[in-house]
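Lab notebook page, bench 4
Experiment: in silico fold of construct C2
Operator: M.H.
Input chain length: 149 residues
Purpose: comparison with the prior construct
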Amino acid sequence: MKKRVLLFLLFGFIATPLFSQSVGFTDSSGVFQWQYHRSVFKNSEDTTSAIVVFVFINGANTTALSYRQEAQNSTLNWLDQEKGIYGEEGYVQFLTTKLAPNEAILWRIQLKNNTLNKDKSIDLENGAVLIMDKTFTVRKDQFPAQNLK
């Protein structure tokens, strides 16, 4: 019985479309600077929406961070926005924060398309994360548009 349940759960996780991206940075001296992970999946409570989970772990130095998400054809709901300052520029919504050394944040976003697709898929528009270090150098990682089935 336990094997059947484990196989069912494993198949459920494999069958669920999931888009994720993880990036980390260690400087030339081998000192950990930061790492983030972004995952996108269908909302189990409302299958017409998607959930974006963004986790950022800061390293040895103070870092400024901005997560940006386009919402031209969608509605965004920031479920968790601890320590983030919210803003909008046209159809781009964003959260910005400053992290102390060794601090971590978790942001969750619910995205719902304004018009439903016939195949019940969800279109996730472009997004980006901007990471600024102590020397004011900015790194921009872009998240391309995706279709989540």
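Observations: The helical segments are 2-15. The radius of gyration is 17 Å.
Next step: discuss at group meeting.
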